[in-house]
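Please go through this protein, sequence plus structure tokens, and consider how the sequence yields the tokens. Keep your notes short.
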Amino acid sequence: MSRSIKLIIMKQIQLITNLAFKMPLRRAFTILFVVIGFIPTTKAQFFDELSNPQVSVKLNHPPGLGLKINKIAFNTTTGNCADQIIDAIISDFVSNNIEVIDRANLKTILAEHNFNFTGYVDQTTAVSIGKIIGPSALVTVKVLRCETKVQDDLYSIEKKHDYNTNRDYQVKAFIARTSVFLKVSIQTTDLTTGRIFTAQVLDYSPVRENKSYEGKPEPPNEFDIQEEAFNSLVGTVHRMFLPWTSSADLYFFDDKEGNLKAAYLALQSGIQEEALELSLQNLEKCKNAPSIKEKTLAHAYYNLGMSYFINSEYDKAIENFREAQKIRPGTIVTDAITRCQSAKANTLAMQKYDEKATIAADKAQAEEAKAVKSETENTITNADIIDLTNKKLPKNLILQKIKNSKCKFDTSTDALVALSNAGVNEEVIMLMMEQK
């Protein structure tokens, strides 16, 4: 319902309320019912907005990237302010019990496993690193812009009013403005699966200004504004990797019919799991009660949708909101659907991964597996030599085969005894010991 229609109806209701004190009560109610009769059925939720209280709830959000990890490694960080930014992010991770491996320690750990890490990461490289350091995420930070701009020569002409003379006049206001521009690219790789998430480009530009009518003021402190930008960045990164909460005032119906009041009271008390369970029960009860009013059924669908929304189950929430909308359309349910769709879109956008990188990495991994298989097939072992000996292949041919092949021989004492017992020529055994 548009704001103008709401205002008209509110004025009409207020007028009738005032007239009620000046006319018989029966006549006042008659006029009120006439006014209500002019309200379209599709706008019925207007009165829900007026009469139904909102509930202040804490929304629990899963990590934006959808990863469940307790260890994060940092790749190369580049750009102005990079060290300050990484320090701030690491501090937040550590305070939330996340193990952090910085770039220097990551190189040391990989070097101990003879892994030469250049900083470039594809899916194959990611999985290999993950096998070494365990389930974790690799974060690559690039600072695209970090600069401060101070303008201390700004001014504006403002209109003021002199109440003594009842005249307007103009004054010159001097302005000193400090702006910070921070733009950072953050790419994440899941080292368990090798999934490479599309880089998130985070942009912040906080501005503060001081004003004076008596000469130029001092510009705001640039370090305070820079800290504001860093804190905003850290908050966004926190929400990418860690669960987080937010507060919101939401409509939740408290009809006595259908026992909706019980779910409302549970949510009001902060017992969200109970509110969801009661909402499920309430909807089933309303659907199976022939005498239940359509209004109550719509409210039951809505409450269940809102319970799912609070638990970040967006598809189930939208499904129930739409059922409520079919029965009783209005701004409450329309706004809820919009809010839910926006939350779902934001989650999917953050979880988007680089399909081209994944396809290329899959191809490289397949080629590597093919090469490993080929190498394995062309590598001769003790068993192959024994097999060739049993097939009566001439000694010179076996020697030539060893010289021209990739070998993986076991030349331990027990293995040498087994070769000798199998009738392998002594000269062949000597060459095997050289080529192992």
The radius of gyration is 36 Å. Confidence is low (pLDDT under 50) at residues 31-42.
